[in-house]
Amino acid sequence: MDLVTSKPTLNFNNGAFGVNGWRLSFTSELADAWHQEVELTSGERLNDLNGTIVFENADTSEPHMGWAKGSLTYWEGRDDLIDGRAASYLITIRLSNDDLTRLTQSIMTGMLLKKVNIDVPIEYGWQPDGSGKKWDNLAKPRVEIEGYSLILAKLDCEASVADPGEIKDDLKSSQLMDLQRISKTVAYILYALVIVLVVLIVRLR
Asked: Are 70 and 145 in contact (CB under 8 A)?
C-alpha cells in the first residue's frame, strides 16, 4: 500500500505505552490510485479514514508480538458525546536509532517524506480486474508489516507541486515578470539620459 504523508511531529516518550525515546509521526492517507482501494469487513474503506504513521526507535522499545518491522492497526470509531472519535488507523514502523536519527535530520533540514509503502498480509486483487484489497479488520484489527520503503524529496523541487508542468508555467511567469521589471528600469534610465542631454544642449546654446 502506498501512503502520502504530511504534518510531521516529533515527540519524546519516557516509558509510556512501553515506548522509550523519540518518535516521529505524520498524518497520512492512501495514495489516490485505482489499485489502492482497501475495503474493510467493518463496512468502511481504509481510503476514507484518517491515519497516522509513527516511526519509533527499535533500539529503545519492545516490538508488539515480536513484529520487528512494525504493524498496521485499525481503531474502531466510538459514538460518545464526551469521548467520541472517528474510526482511524495507525501505522507503526520500527527503525534503528541510526535510521530514525537520519530520517529526523532529513525532515528538519528541509526534506519531505513524500511517500511510504508498506507490505501487509491482507487479501489482494479480489476484484475482477485484479485491483482492490480487502482487510478483515474485525477478525484481525492489527496486522504485521512485513516490509516497507520510504521516498523523500526536497521541498523546493517536487514535493510541493503535483504537476511538473505547473513548475514550468510558474518559471515562465517569473521570468516574464523579471524581464518586464528590467525593461521598465532600462526605459527609466534612457528617459533620464534624454532629459539630461536636452538640458545640456539648451545650456550650451
From this structure: yes
